[in-house]
Amino acid sequence: xxxxxxxxxxxxxxxxxxxxxxxxAGAYANYAKDDVPAEDRAVLEALIAKAREKMLATxxxxxxxxxxxxxxxxxxxxxxxxDTHYLVCTDxxxxxxxxxxxxxxxKLKGFAAVQIFAPGGLRTNSLEDFQSALSELVRWCEESLxxxxxxxxxxxxxxxxxxKSIQGFLQTLxxxxxxxxxxIFETGSELLHIPRLPVxxxxxxxxxxxxxxxRRLALxxxxxxxxxxxxxxxxxxxxxxxxxxxxxxxxxxxxxxDALYAAQLQASPSSKVRFSEGFEKxxxxxxxxRLAQVNQRIDDLARYAESGDNLKRLDFKAxxxxxxAPSTHxxxxxxxxxxxxxxxxxxxxVIVLDRLDKALH
Length: 361
Description:
Elements: E1 2-7, H1 11-14, H2 20-27, H3 38-57, H4 66-75, E2 84-88, H5 93-108, E3 114-117, H6 127-145, E4 154-158, H7 164-177, E5 180-183, E6 192-195, H8 204-209, H9 211-218, H10 225-228, E7 236-239, E8 242-245, H11 247-263, E9 273-275, H12 277-282, H13 288-307, E10 317-318, E11 329-334, E12 340-347, E13 350-358
Parallel strand pairs: 1-2, 1-4, 2-3, 4-5, 9-13
Antiparallel strand pairs: 5-6, 7-8, 10-11, 11-12, 12-13
Helix pairs in contact: 3-5, 6-7, 6-11, 11-13
């Protein structure tokens, strides 16, 4: 099976457009629907309907769009329907409309698992929004692609469509999250396969040296100017004196974090989360992958302690009764297999972690 990620451009519209329609499609590429003047919006709505009618009438025409041309060459008319498709589009009216047309085409071919992903702010008229959207895209790759990639499920980046501004970034992400990239010139007939290269991101020294800062940036927690100054500028997204990880920072941290989290219990990223001696002792015999999960839950606890964001995977809550004293609260460490909880209590505003232990039943 395959999980296929395809950036979607507007070629399915422009290939159906004539004269003024093509001009308007380009002029309003970065607009929300309500921001398009009524007269021009009516022209574009008619164009969308015309493109859909053309697609339904001739679904196997490779000239419909760059994305459809690539799908036809990739499957060679043998549509199994078992693959999962993600369509990455701009956070705009026309971007979502064109992705919707490609989604409809895929479902006509029997693919039930098709999802549209439009990172907030992914448009080319605001550099700040665009950089923020790239960060969201990396987080999505970590959460949606990394867990499903296996010998039985290949991740493929289809880079024939979409805008050049997003294609370049996805070409880099493909070397980390995909097994291969595929590409075809819009009117071409030969599919180009680009295998994943043995690329290693050599920035983990910087991440390890300033791990607390990277963790706080990744958690969207406050970081001082001096701390942010220790991070290479290309990894940062700074707005109004506040700092977060940019797209490249998210990518680098995501690649380095797993090894660092599996190696040892890392120091708390927040002054509002502290470890007791008993907590550290309770971790001595757990495996590296479970230790990595504990470090991730500590990140979640830090976010909760400073922002009140209680994630579902954390589930921080008060204990019933006093059987686990001095612990008064618990959260999930991991929920699969031999599920474990982290038990804790408050000292003022500080969450003190007491121990890792079995869940209460």
